[in-house]
Every structure is written in C-alpha cells, then in structure tokens.
Protein 1
Amino acid sequence: MRILAIDVGTGTQDIMIYDTEKELENSIKLVLPSPHLFISQKIREIENDIYFKGEIMGGGKLKKTIQEHMDKGYDVVMHPTCARTIRDNLEQVKSFGIKISENEKEFKDYTKISLGDINITKLSEFLLGYDLEFDFDKIAIAVQDHGYNENMGDRDFRFEKIREKVSKPISPLEFGFVEDIPEYFTRMQAVKRQIKSEGIEDTPLVMDTKFASIAGMCYDEMVEKLNSFVVIDIGNGHTTAASIENGKIQGVFEHHTSSLTGESLERYIKRLASGEITHEEVYNDHGHGAHVLNPISKLEKVIVSGPKRELIEKTNLDWHHAAPGGDVMMTGTVGLVKTILG
C-alpha cells in the first residue's frame, strides 16, 4: 500500500510518501514552507487589487499581509467561502475592510489568488519531475482546526471538542476522521472538498495536527519500550500534551506556547501525569484547558516534538526528542500513516 501523508503546520508542511513494502526510513520525505507563507509572499509581490477564491485554510500571516496590501491603497475582495480563513464570522471579515462577493467575473481586472491548504496538482508535478510515481492507495492530511460555533469562542470550542473525544481512555489514532468529519470542523471539511475537486475519488483521512503528532511520537523507537509517559508537541502557536498509559490517552492539556516558561511547562506536565492538573489553572493562564481521566502510574519519560521543542531543555524533566522513522520533522506524517494502517 502506498500512502501520501501531508501535515500542514504553521511554519512548514511536512510530506511523506510511505510504501508498506519498504522500511519507514526509506520513505520519500519533503519539508516545504506552509501554504500561508508562500501565499503571503505572493501577495507582497502584487501591485494590483486582489480577488481571493478557493477554500478555507490556515490563516497564519494572511490577515496581516492582506491588511498591509490594503494599507497601500489596493482593494481586496474575497469569496465568502475562503473569507472564513480570516474569520468564521463574515461580518468580522468585513469590519477589517475586506469586501465579500461570490461574483468573480465582476472583478476581471483584479489579480486572482486561490486559497487552500492542499495543492495535489502542484505536488504531483513536483514529484513527476523527479520521475517519482504519483499513485496512492490512501491519502491522509493533518491540519489544525479550532472548529466553529457562533455562540462560543474558538479557544473554548476547540477544547470542548477535545474533552468530548477523550471521554474515556482512547488511542491517539482515534482522532482521525474519514467519512465522519463533523460539520463544525470547517478547515477539515475544506480539505475534503479540495481533494475531491482535484479529481481524487477516495475520501482522505483527516486529522488534527496536534493529535497526528502525538500519535506519531508513540511510534518512536524509545517510546515503544515505555508504558507510562507524557508526549508533548511544542508548536509555534500551540503546545499540546497527553499523558499515556497502556497505549491510551489518560489526560490532555493545551496551551499557547508563547505563554509558557520552562518552569510552568514542567509544573503542568507533572500535574498532568499525577492527575492533579485542572482546566481552570490552564485556561486562566491564557491556555485552552486541561482534562484528566486518570493519573498515570509513573512518569517514565517526557517525549517531545515540535519546532519550539527546545523549551523542554529549560525544565528538569527526563525528556527525549521523538524521531519516529529517524526524523524529528515527521512525527505528524508518521501519526497519519499509523492511523491509516490502524
């Protein structure tokens, strides 16, 4: 079986082509700039009004770059679907000075930019340029999705859905969706639509980036020898940790990386392992929250990944940088592959 796994992060998009007939270490791997970064660069190079079409995607620097473009005196119009990249509430999008219109033809003199987290056509052209076969049995995509509820802020809503998922001890692999993506995960739904629009009939597996990484870390060579541990992804924006025993998540907390210090990170990890951490202490510290079902019997080791993982070095914890398949950049893609394989 050949699997295409793409993990779309804030800084990079990490891509793995895995063939079950080969060793994981011999997979084709790519680490490319995250889509919002090269789209932002494209905007900076344009000296014209812009019409945005396409899909919802990870916004990253897009809002700031678009505002800078408008500050130069240019007009910006967005199709209502892709405008939700900026804010799910379109009235808020309009409040930034962005116009909303479905009629692309009305803006024939505007430069057109298409938004989206995935571009399978572009990737296929790149791979075929190296005489690499572009034929897959399964596709798996990871994006971070806060979800959307008009009556609740995204920080609260995202963690509420994590808490609902971890209503009992579960494997990290259970965070993958295929046909059953909830409607409120608008970014995941957009990925599904994009894949279909590019002529791919097979429904992709879609997963949250943080839990794809947590799943992948569990397949690090060292971790497979452990039974009771904490895995933590320290990302550019968010830090997510899960306490794991007997292969199942026993508790989780999520915070904003910029709000963490070595001291506070160590405290949260220890309290997660002991089962003492509370939702209120994390939320009131400007994080997303915490949810614990059970303490773990022993904190054997802390397994860490993510672009800001050096923060763990400011703690006194016994830690290990995860490198499943021998690559610290591929925790998310390995998590996607393992979720596909079950």
Note: Residues 36-115 form one domain.
Protein 2
Amino acid sequence: MPQPTTPLRILCLTMNPSVDLATETERVVPTHKLRCSDTLHDAGGGGINVARVLARMGGHCTALCPTGGSTGQWLQARMAQEGMHGIFLPIAGETRVSFTVHEHATGAEYRFVMPGPTLSEAEWQACLDHLWHLPDFPDVLVASGSLPPGVPPDFDARLARLCRERGARLVIDTSGPALAAALAEGVYLVKPNLRELSELSGQALETPEQWEAAARALVSNGQAEVVALTLGHLGALLVTRDGAWRAPPLPIQVASAVGAGDSFVGGMVWALQHHRPLTEAFAWGVAAGSAALLSVSTGLCCKEDAQQLFAQVQTTPCEPT
C-alpha cells in the first residue's frame, strides 16, 4: 500500500506564551548588582518552542496563543520575523517574561519562570471556540506548556475531547493536574519526564523496569496511545501497544538544558508530520532534544546538529515483560 506523501497539518497551542530572556554573569550572589552579558530575546512558551523547532527542521505549522500588552506585541513581531504563521487571540493582561541566567564560575543555570497573566473565562473559552470553528481542523494538535492563572485544570482534557470529536490526534506536554486531567480523557502522545511520570503513578520509579511499567500502564489504561518518556542523562523510553524501546543518552557535552524537552517534542512531531515510522520519530526526538543541550541560550536545537546526532541515536527494543 503506498505511503501518504502530503504532510500532516500541525497546530501548536501555547496557552501561556512568554518572551524568554537569557543572559550570563560570572557568579550569582545575593544583594550585589550582577553585571550581565548582552541579553538574548526569543519568543517562548511550550507550543511556540515546538513550532519554532518544526520550522527549523523544515516543517510547517500554525501557532495559536493568547497574547496581550507590549510584550505580546513583541512576541508577535518576533514570530513574524522567523516566518512563522501565528494566530494571536487578544487578552487584557500582559504576556509574561521569563529569563535564564548562566553562571560562568560554576556552569550552573538559574531559570526564573513567571506565572503569566490571569485569563478570564471569556479569554480562555475564546481559544476553545476558535479551535472548534476551524473549517480545516489540524491532523495533529500539540498542546505544550503550563496553563496561566484563571484557566481551569481540565482545559487540556477539553482539548482531548475536541480532538476526538474532530478526528485529530492530541500531543500533550504539560504537568500537574492539567496533565492528569488530559490523560484521564485520553490522548495520542504524551511526553512526560521522569518526575512527571512518577507523580502520575504515585511511585518513586527508581529502576528501568519501573519506568517501563508505569509508561505501559498509561497505554494499557487507555490514557495515551504513545508515551515518550525523557530521562535526562539516562536517555529516553518509547512505549506503545506494540512494544517498548530504549534510547541511551548521546555522548555530548551539555551546555544548557533549556529547550531540550520542547526540542524533543518538535523533532518527534516533525518526523510524524512527514509520516516517518514511530520509532524513527522517537529517534528524531532524541536527536533534537540532545542538540538543544549543546548551546547556552534560550534553548532549542538547530537543524544541522539534530541531523548529525540522529545518525548516533540507537533505539533498542525492551524485553517483553
């Protein structure tokens, strides 16, 4: 049977976008003025980062997010500069700013993440209404990042129901009550890290066998068709109804962990957009996530690094349990 050639339609939703700043200083100490290097500015927030990775990898998508104030205007302009197709729903509050400080003396990284503006019911409902009334609904909806104040914790669960009704696949990357609610409704793909999976399972998850069992439980319970578990310096794990695969960490020098998770999702979704097999898409996720570790900035991989690292990714089937 011939393989489909038309790329899947992707929409990346970011309910809590941000303007991400990154700078460096010699040492972080209390009270003193900390003289910093030039500041890098980027459009950020989970779904926007995924969309940026897709664009860097040569994919295409639409980015949807609520924005407000001068920072929201800056974010819109920056995304336009990067050639991204964005839909921006107006809100009364000011789009948040988050920042990362890299300490030269120790190599430590300090990440300051703001909660974001409080959205009214009318504002967050407008996002759902916009999606519902899309005449050309995406094949894959990526919902990534935190929910801002005012948005109910079952918002992503509502997205899951909407995707099911419209025949789309939901890719989710969030945490806490929002993640639990979405999984209770059922999603296509979830990308937790080990801490998030441990919270979901209520167990410590200290061994590879426990990681795999917890991920398999999400699949067998109908909470997710695919679990892509990122394990930091321990690699990654892919679990579906058809099996489980481990990918060991790549031998690279880590400069910064900022953007690694979003790059992983972006690399994997890019491969799925082009109908690559699921295990190959997983390998692209590992490559893109690892590529993001190579530079100190506001994060995200570059295409050339991801392509070089992809050749080094090894995925090994896990023994049946």
Note: The first strand starts at residue 10 and ends at 13.
Protein 3
Amino acid sequence: MADAATRAEQEVARVRDDPAGRYALAQEFYRHATGPRRRYGRAELSFLRWSLARGVLAPETSDPPGSPWWRAVNERLLRDKAEAALLCAGAPGVAGAPSVECWVDFIRSPAPRRWYRAHNASIVAGYLGHEDLAAAERQVERFMMNVALLRVLFTHAMLAEPRLALGRLAPLGPLMADPRHRNVQLFLDRGRSFPPEYPVTAPVEETVLDEHALARVLDYGLIAPRLTALYAFSAASLDQPRLTTLLDDGVPAYAWPRVDRPVWYIGNTGLHLRAVARVSGTRLLWEPSPLRTARRPRRR
C-alpha cells in the first residue's frame, strides 16, 4: 500500500486541472468528517469560491490561463490536509512536513487555535516555497498576495493573541475570529476588496483606491501599525523564521522590490483611519505617498 504522502499527491494530481474538483476535495475534508471538525471550513471554502470565480485556479491551458502561483499555494494546502487525514485514518507513513503535523494535531483534537496554526502553516509554506512564481505575476496581483497573507496572519492573532492584534479592543478578538462562525468572513472576504477577474489589468493605484472603505480601515487602521509584531508572532507560532523577511521595515515585501514600496502608502490616508488606530491603542505608521491620486468612481 502506498504511504500517506504518495496517496495525497495522487489525490491532488487528480484535480490539478479541475477547479471544481479542487473545491470538492477541500470541501470533503470538512463535510465527510465526524464531530466538530465539520464546522471549520467556512472561511477557507469562502476564500476558495472567490478564487474559483476569479479564475486563478483554472488550468494553465485555459484561455485565459490560471495563475501558477495561486494554483501552487492552493495545492500545498490541499496536499497537507489530504496527507494528514490519511495518516489519521491509519495510512502508513509519517508526516512529510511540519505543516502536515499541524493538521494531524487539528484532526485529532479540533480547536480554533489548532485550525489557524495548521491552515497558516500550509499557506506560509506555500508562500515561501513559491516566491519565484509570485515574482512573475503583475504588480497588482503581488499586492493582493501580500494583503491576503497579512489578513490571515492577523485573524489568527485576533484569536491567539488578541492584545497584540487589537490592543484595547482585544476582548472582541476571539468572538470575531472564530473560524466556525460567519463573523470571520468580515476579515477574510476578498470580494469587497479586490477586482473579481484574473488577470487584473487596472493599475495597482486604482485597485487600492477602489478598495471598500471597511477593508481599508482594517488594512491600514488596524493591521498596518502592527505588522512587525504580527509577523514576529506568526513566525514563532509557525516555526517559520523566514516569515519576518517578508516585511521591509514594517512594510509588506513578499515578491515586492523596495523601489515599489511607495505603493503601500497610497491608501493610508483619512482621519477615520487615524481614529481607528487611536481607538485600538496605536497610530498610523506609514506616511501618505506622493503617488496618491484622486479617487476614481467605485466599481459596481
């Protein structure tokens, strides 16, 4: 009998060019489980539906083709979960990566903190393992990759280290970030933040300025002032010290050259952002950029 790692790779290979099959495999991990594990798929499956709608998981032979980077990161998550589930079901072998061990821990004893640690261990491993693919994407796509990462790290911290994530608002953290509840989609939903198509042809500046007001409050008012501490917490929690290198002096830097750093300052304007930062016990750290332009009409 093949070991768990080999069988997991075969399962993922079977759906590699089948976006709906990818979703079914992700859904199966939760739907076919018994007990409390069934309730943990809400945020992950919501994000996957957004990815499917954009077309990033489409085969590379499609017209337009999918994204090699998004496909690779999604595969890492699918494979880690599949291998862990097989190991827990008695398949031979040992966990082939620390991220698989995290999923084994979650399956054996489901809990919100264990789910975040397992999920984020797979996602971060995917990011770190595919920087070359990320570098080949358009600037606006790389911007979205960085935002997706910082939000999922922040949501984990809201539950595991709410004081770090929310300051004075810490009591709200565990209530809002529980992956079993609908509230978590407020923080992980991308539909309100970014264009629904792939590839995105609009300039990154336009994409930033078109972001939903609530999303900008979250990204710039709550998360940005805490990024250094947030990435340090996540690096320690996931035993991934390289994670801290994805910041450049507190600014997201995954597949992001320093010369493009001013892009991150574009959305960091407005008294409301300063007010949110102040209420949560911090202040805005990024200065407004000379690249700031007039707001364009919002997409409908």
Note: The chain has two domains: 1-136, 142-300.
